[in-house]
Design a protein that fits this description.
Length: about 100
């Protein structure tokens, strides 16, 4: 799995209810054809990434086809989630 495009936006909490910083991140993924998640239309991982008191976590994510925006019902494996969290932190740091 390679990230070929990314977009990040810091989410605002106008009421001050949520703790920490929240980011909406879109990652366009390049996948091998033999990967069960592969789609000829391309795959995008949309997620909410939270940084709260030196703790980081992915609180929500969805896979969709890039062209059709169709929801793909897949879950990240533990090592994939770790890799994605590292990518998210790099995006936050460079933003």
């Amino acid at each position: 799995m390679n990230v070929i495009e990314s977009k990040i936006e810091k989410l605002q909490d106008p009421f001050g209810i949520l703790t920490g910083d929240r980011y909406e991140i879109f990652l366009t993924l390049e996948l091998d054809e033999d990967d069960e998640l592969y789609s000829e239309h391309g795959v995008v991982l949309k997620l909410i990434y939270v940084i709260d008191e030196n703790q980081t976590k992915i609180v929500q994510y969805d896979f969709t086809e890039k062209v059709t925006d169709r929801y793909l019902d897949f879950a990240l494996e533990e090592e994939e989630e770790t890799e994605i969290k590292e990518i998210c932190q790099q995006l936050v740091d460079s933003n």
